[in-house]
Design brief:
This protein is α+β, with helices and mostly antiparallel strands. Strands 16, 17, 18, 19, 20, 21, 27 and 28 form an eight-stranded antiparallel sheet that branches. Strands 22, 23, 24, 25 and 26 form a five-stranded antiparallel sheet that branches. Residues 229-260, 335-363, 653-685 are annotated as: Disordered.
């Protein structure tokens, strides 16, 4: 009886323990789901922290046989499921020579050399789609259809990673490989290229490249040795096959050649292994000899082919041209790289600087400027030099030049001359209003416009800009009739296309900017010089049709009678300054007028009674002196002439630059009349 009681008690305890264990198992499994969605965002954290997070969030049981001390950054932009998480973790661990092997809900962290002996997934198939797109360690069986598995294994053994297990099974004619899935996909791609219908009689050769890129080289080999269907129907051979037959000796279908005859049914196939920069080629053995020659020519060190070339420039500046070309080559390299990535177009076959693409020269051309002789020193291959020389020839063409004839005049306005120079008196001779923006709007040639002033918007601070199409001498006569006109300067300036020319008619005036007293009581003044007068900057841009766009910036400055105190004992002079900026577009030979730049001056006027004022002593009673306000306006006339030849322009410019004397009467001054006519006559081209 006692024995039965003991048995019952033990049975009850066992049932309780089993139920507890089963319940615990159910609780554990409840924390794991294949449909879990996890977002990872870890920046430079210990890899162990990432695994702990996976254990908490995904329910993985993480078992690690190694001590993980490395730090990692793992970021996923979108949620990942369980399989994607394991694949991502394997990608991270692979760089540390570790692997994560998943068995159900358990995630084992092993040394990668031990992982391949664990319970890892097994797959099979000869297509890329048969291999998972992950970084997990798997075992994959690749059936070989046509080639001999043992021979294929020997041919590609050098392409297998060190940690992989790689063998062949002769009975099933298969290859068995244990490695990361990403590495296995690479091997499957290579085997696909080798396992062709005629593989049993084809040879395989592996080419290790040093300078050329494997993927581009493989593409070139496949393209060069591709047999055109129509060509095959007509002749049975592609051009390279015919070339090899001529070199090795041709035979008919029943004959034979000592060097061997190429079978028309055997095609050349090339596959690239980018990781090892290797090309694997299959085909007839005698064809592979030609392939070897082609690859040898491709895989050359570009440094061995470079030479030095000196290009002496005639017009362009060497330093400027060097910068332009170097920037161009760099942008071409970026463009080609983006183009290759986006469209898959074949780029250069180059590695470390080799290549032959017409638009990919940045790593092949080294250029320096020798400024003393204005030369470019270029180190590159003859082939590349032949490509860039036409570019340099184009850029070294003579730059068009512009002779700008300038006449600067000052008009003193009388009582009838109000609110700006009345350019409307010239409207009958054809002024064109540009409004300062280079867009010509013809003014109405109407006698009612006589005496009409510029609109306020035309004047402003910057003055008005007009284009004169009529007779310039008439314009000066008309202007002189409404005020006293004084020609201040009439220089000619010569400048190149898109280069700024400056006219400075004035003087440097010293003025005190600071004053201080030393401990000994000595006063020290700081002096600065200021350009006072007329400063005109003109930047012309010429197009092929002879249109000249000019950026014009006149500035007029002078001293005034006003002062401002800068210390107890020193007053500084106040300067007046007027400036404007305009952009106009006019045809070669047209004259542009800038007006509206006015100023008020105090002028001392002496008056006397005729005869009586000339009597000594008593004559003072018949004299008077008064200060009158006088308003003057500055007019700037510019006439650009475009010419390709320097000889005539330089001669005219040098002769006319020195002639800047003031002229007050147009009708009585033949020199000025001649100058005005010259402004409207183009120089000889």
């Amino acid at each position: 009886m006692k024995t039965k009681k003991k048995i019952c008690i033990i049975a009850a305890l066992l049932i309780t323990v089993c139920l507890s264990a089963a319940q615990a198992g159910e609780d554990d499994s409840a924390g794991f789901s294949e449909d879990v969605q996890i977002t990872l965002n870890f920046q430079d954290v210990p890899v162990a922290d990432v695994l702990d997070y996976l254990s908490e969030e995904a329910g993985f049981v993480v078992v690690s046989d190694v001590v993980l001390t490395e730090r990692v950054t793992v970021v996923s932009k979108k949620p990942l499921d369980a399989d994607e998480v394991v694949s991502l973790i394997n990608s991270v661990l692979a760089d540390m020579d570790y692997a994560a092997v998943r068995v159900g809900r358990t995630l084992k962290i092993l040394d990668i050399s031990r992982a391949k002996y664990s319970s890892i997934p097994v797959s099979s198939g000869s297509e890329l789609g048969d291999v998972p797109e992950t970084d997990e360690v798997i075992t994959h069986i690749i059936p070989i259809k046509y080639a001999d598995a043992v021979k294929v294994k020997d041919d590609i053994a050098s392409l297998i990673s060190e940690q992989a297990d790689f063998t062949s099974n002769e009975a099933s004619n298969s290859i068995i490989i244990t490695d990361t899935a990403s590495n296995i996909r690479r091997i499957v791609k290579i085997i696909q290229a080798l396992d062709t219908r005629m593989a049993s009689i084809a040879s395989v050769k592996v080419f290790n490249l040093v300078y050329a890129e494997a993927d581009n080289t493989a593409d070139l080999i496949n393209e060069v040795f591709e047999q055109d269907t129509q060509e095959e129907g007509r002749r049975g051979r592609n051009p390279f096959e015919r070339m090899m037959r001529s070199r090795m000796g041709d035979r008919d279908d029943n004959g034979s050649s000592g060097a061997g005859v190429i079978s028309q049914n055997i095609k050349v196939r090339a596959a690239a292994d980018e990781d090892t920069n290797t090309v694997v080629v299959s085909g007839p053995s005698d064809t592979l000899e030609i392939v070897a020659e082609v690859i040898e020519k491709i895989d050359k060190n570009p440094a061995e082919e470079r030479s030095f070339f000196v290009y002496k420039l005639k017009n362009a500046k060497a330093a400027n041209l060097k910068d332009v070309l170097n920037n161009l080559f760099e942008k071409m390299e970026d463009f080609n790289e983006d183009d290759r990535e986006s469209s898959g177009r074949r780029g250069n076959i180059r590695r470390g600087g080799s290549g032959s693409s017409e638009t990919d020269l940045s790593e092949e051309v080294y250029m320096e400027a020798e400024e003393d002789t204005n030369s470019l020193i270029i180190m590159t291959s003859q082939e590349n030099y032949d490509k860039i020389k036409p570019i340099i020839d184009e850029l070294d063409e003579p730059v068009p030049q512009v002779l700008i004839k300038v006449l600067i005049a000052e008009v003193a306005r009388n009582d009838d001359f109000e609110l700006g120079t009345e350019f409307s008196v010239l409207s009958g001779k054809g002024f064109v209003d540009t409004d300062g923006d280079g867009t010509a709007d013809s003014l109405q040639a109407d006698s009612e416009l006589y005496g009409t002033e510029f609109l306020p918007s035309d004047l402003g601070d910057g003055g008005a800009v007009k284009i004169l199409e009529g007779d310039l001498e008439f314009a000066f006569k008309a202007l002189s009739s409404i005020g006293e006109m004084n020609v201040l300067s009439r220089p000619y300036i010569l400048t190149s296309n898109n280069q700024t020319a400056t006219i400075n008619v004035g003087k440097e005036v010293p003025f005190i900017t600071d004053t201080r007293t030393t401990e000994t009581g000595q006063t020290i003044n700081t002096i600065q010089y200021e350009d006072i007068g007329i400063i005109l900057e003109v930047t012309p841009v010429i197009n092929d049709e002879g249109l000249v766009t000019m950026d014009i910036a006149p500035e007029i400055s002078n001293t005034t009678t006003e002062t401002v105190p800068i210390s107890e004992t020193v007053d500084a002079t106040v300067f007046s300054k007027r400036s404007s900026e305009s952009r106009v577009a006019i045809q070669d030979g047209q004259t542009i007028v800038i007006g509206g730049l006015m100023q008020d001056d105090d002028k001392e006027v002496n008056k006397k009674v005729p005869l009586l004022g000339d009597i000594p002593i008593l004559g003072e009673l018949f004299k008077s002196r008064e200060i009158q306000k006088q308003k003057t306006e500055l007019l700037i006339f510019l006439t650009p002439h475009v010419a390709d030849r320097n000889e005539n322009l330089m001669k005219i410019s040098e002769n006319e630059k020195t002639n800047s004397e003031s002229i007050s009467e147009i009708d009585n001054n033949p020199a000025l009349k001649k100058h005005i006519k010259n402004m409207q006559s183009k120089p000889e081209k």
